[in-house]
């Protein structure tokens, strides 16, 4: 489901089947590379904020688009939760307008 959703989102085939093996297409390699970079930056940001604020406990709500929130953030949030189990995490998924409005209204 995840790959199919990404293929629909990017309008590109990301994997090719060769017998029983799957190989990434050129677009698949590109998406994988960017995904690794995004996950790395997200982890780096979480560490930087935690270091800055001395985060040990509390509540963190993150707003994201559906693609980022459903495809990329679950792994990052899982790692964050393991590192900071006393922080209650919540994820708000919405379109750009909704997320922007939530930030302006200090919901996020």
Give a verbal description of the structure:
It contains 4 helices and 4 strands, in the order H-E-E-H-E-H-E-H. With 108 residues, it is of the alpha+beta class. The chain has one domain (2-104): 3-Layer(aba) Sandwich (D-Maltodextrin-Binding Protein, domain 2), CATH 3.40.190. The chain has a two-stranded antiparallel ribbon. Strands 3-4 form a two-stranded parallel ribbon.
Mean pLDDT: 86
CATH class: Alpha Beta
The sequence of SSEs as H and E is HEEHEHEH
* Fraction in helix: 55-70%
Number of structural domains: 1
Radius of gyration: 16 Å
- CATH architecture field: 3-Layer(aba) Sandwich
Number of helices: 4
The major sheet is characterized as:
2 strands, antiparallel
Strand neighbour order, sheet with most strands? 1-2
Annotated CATH topology: D-Maltodextrin-Binding Protein, domain 2
Structural class: alpha+beta
Strand content: 15-25%
First CA to last CA: what distance?
Answer: 29 Å
Overall morphology? globular
The stretches of 5 or more residues where confidence is low (pLDDT under 50) are none
Total DSSP E strands: 4
């Amino acid at each position: 489901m995840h790959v199919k959703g990404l293929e629909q989102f990017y309008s590109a085939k990301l994997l090719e089947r060769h017998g029983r093996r799957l190989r990434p297409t050129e677009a698949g390699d590109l998406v994988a590379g960017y995904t690794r970079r995004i996950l790395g930056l997200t982890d780096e940001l979480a560490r930087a904020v935690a270091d800055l604020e001395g985060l040990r406990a509390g509540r963190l709500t993150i707003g994201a688009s559906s693609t980022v929130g459903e495809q990329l953030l679950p792994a990052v949030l899982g790692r964050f939760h393991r590192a900071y189990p006393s922080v209650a995490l919540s994820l708000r998924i919405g379109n750009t307008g909704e997320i922007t409005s939530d930030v302006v209204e200090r919901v996020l």
